[in-house]
Amino acid sequence: MDARLDMFEDVNTSPSLEGDMSIPGKRTTTTTTAQHGVPEYNTLDEPIRETVLRDMRAVGIKFYHVLYPKEKSSLLRDWDLWGPLVLCTFMATILQGSSSADSMSDNGPEFAQVFVIVWIGAAIVTLNSKLLGGNISFFQSVCVLGYCLTPVALSLIICRIILLSTQTRFLFFLRFVTTTLGFAWATYASFIFLGQSQPPHRKPLAVYPIFLFFFIISWLVLSHN
Amino acid sequence: METPTTDDLLQFRDYSATNSGTPAQINVNSPTHATVGGSGSGSGGNSNAQRQRGDPLSDLIYDMSNSAQTIIGGGGPAGGSGAPADGAAGGARLSFLTMEYYQQFFNVDTYMVLERIVNSMIPKRAAANYLRMNIGENPDLYGPFWITVTLIFSIAISGNIASYLQQANDSYHWHYNFHLVSYAATCIFLYANILPAVLWALFKYSLKPVDEADAIETDSASYTPSLLSLMCIYGYSLAIYIPVSILWVINISLLQWLLVITAAMLSGTVLIAVLTPALRNSKYSLFLIIGILGAHIILAAGFLLYFFHSPPEAALAAKPTSAPPLLKDALQKLSTQAVAGDLPPGNITG
């Protein structure tokens, strides 16, 4: 208790050097940010567990918003790339062709190919909407596109479970339906989030690349066997 | 310019440089900025600055007639100079590092893109001056880029479905071939970028010397397109292969070849018709026509042979990446033709 950092902005409010680290507004605002993008909470004196949990909760809330696309602002306002990174790594790990088993006939994509398709694809789609004159920042759009992969990733998990049994035509049909549902869901969610950023006469031009992006990834999911 | 008069407050500024979209721009200056605006108009046209400024109305008429002359005189040769910055409608040159510089290539609306796609499929639909008035005025890269990307994936996906259907009845455990995407991407991007560049260079190289007698006729009917216009036209001309590549899944050889010929003829005819003003200007127009049509048909045939006629499984197991022998023969034949028929080399890479 002898030497402590003083975190107050205004020196006049604390005449002595001794004081506690509590900042007004620390407990009330957890995930929101101030107008200038500076977090209002103070993260110096909290346990690491709390920090990690708070960030994970923010990521989880975004997953929820994608699966239930009603409220737009949270996904667009505080973007992060953790969710996209997790989803993309997960999908690329599952989708990569097994080179060890029988390398002759398995011509699936490499890990890096899936990874690059997702990230470069999202970047190109975003760049396209920027070039068409959309008023959305680059990482906001990449964040939304990445998080909107959630339904596709879910359909990938279901397909993977279906693939454990012996394949019949009915099971293929089931996989097809699952993937189509995931694709439609992802496209719809990203349209809800990104559709407003374009002028109306160019909206189809901006939506088509998003459609194509999810279509390609869904194709990868469906044809994975 | 010491005391701002009425014509300094409301003045027309004209750009004698390559302005294709908005010829005149109203510049309403506040009195404090009057000198800046005046010097700007002085750089725009010398005669304009040294002219005695009197009546605002006569000034306005003078400036408008000036800019009209700029359009009439500078429209043809300026449009053909080939620099991508020709499309800059604002008159001011933008740095190529800014987003706005690239936004001018994406300055299209939905109906415009659809119109261009339809025009690239149906012959005789576009007007005679389509190249100059429509494409040349506002060449976009949106359509070409996304048509190419769509074509790459539609060919890769349909090729996989076709091979699945061909092998579905056997007990063979089917695996999809992701590498088709890489091959399709390589050959389509090469076709859509290198061929326009070669064509552009050939147009430049083989420009007919203009006679004094033909000067008027040449000015009105012929037009050398910029590189960007050529890339735009070529990108749109690939659009017809997207539905065709989906139809190629139907494994009937006659139907597939019929589709190849129909598609290549339709969009090749449009290419020739659209490029007629430029071809008329060239010394080797016959060779160029043969080259354009030949490259288009060969591209379609190459797609069909490589992506849809699956090689026998033994050959696939032995060398999964090598081209089927039929295609190799076709390519060898092609390369000899290319030397003979003055084909651009871009199409052989498929």
From TrEMBL, chain A:
Subcellular location: Golgi apparatus membrane; Membrane
Name this protein carries in UniProt: Protein YIPF
Family: Belongs to the YIP1 family.
Stretch list, region Disordered: 16-35
Keyword field: Membrane, Transmembrane, Transmembrane helix
Annotated ranges, domain Yip1: 68-220
Pfam families: Yip1
Superkingdom to which the source organism belongs: Eukaryota
Residue intervals passing through the bilayer: 111-132, 144-164, 170-193, 205-222
Record flagged with keyword Transmembrane helix: yes
Lipid bilayer topology: Multi-pass membrane protein
Main localization (coarse): Golgi
Annotated GO CC locations: Golgi membrane; trans-Golgi network
UniProt record, GO biological process: endoplasmic reticulum to Golgi vesicle-mediated transport
From TrEMBL, chain B:
GO molecular function: small GTPase binding
Main location: Golgi
Any Pfam family: Yip1
Membrane-spanning parts: 141-161, 181-203, 227-250, 256-279, 286-308
Localization terms from the record: Golgi apparatus membrane; Membrane
Membrane topology: Multi-pass membrane protein
UniProt entry keywords in alphabetical sequence: Membrane, Transmembrane, Transmembrane helix
Entry-linked InterPro entries: Yip1_dom (IPR006977), Yip5/YIPF1/YIPF2 (IPR039765)
Any one Gene Ontology BP term: vesicle-mediated transport
PANTHER family (UniProt xref): PROTEIN YIPF
Record family assignment: Belongs to the YIP1 family.
The name this protein goes by in its record: Protein YIPF
